[in-house]
Amino acid sequence: MYVVDSTDRDFNRLQQCRYELYKLLNYQELADIPFMIIFNKTDLANAMNNEEIQEYFNLTIGLQQIVTATTHKVLAVRTSSISNKCAQEIIRHLKNIVIG
C-alpha cells in the first residue's frame, strides 16, 4: 500500500511522491507484487480530482496493470477515512490478495 495525501499540492512533494512510487514499482524484488495506491482526504474541497491524479502520477482510478522495469497489478483509489469512501473496495482487494 502506498498512501498519498490528495490535498498536498506542493509541486516538489508531488514530484518526490511520484519518484518514490515509481522507484518502488521498479524494484526487481517487488516484481509481480500487487500495489494499492490510496489517495486519501478526498472529502476535502482541495483534494486532487481524477484528472489531476492522472496528470501527476500517470495513473487512472481503478484496477490497472503498470509496466515499468517490472509488472504490477495496481489498484488506485480515492478515499476518505471520515466518510469511509471506498473502504469496502479496499478491503475486498486486500482479501483477494491475501486469500486469492
TrEMBL record:
| Gene3D superfamilies xref list | P-loop containing nucleotide triphosphate hydrolases (3.40.50.300)
Keyword vocabulary terms for this entry: GTP-binding, Nucleotide-binding
Identify the domain of life: Eukaryota
The family database entries (InterPro entries) matched by this protein are listed as: P-loop_NTPase, Small_GTPase_ARF, Small_GTPase_ARF/SAR
**Binding residue positions for GTP:** N40, K41, T42, D43
GO MF: GTP binding; GTPase activity
The protein's name: ADP-ribosylation factor
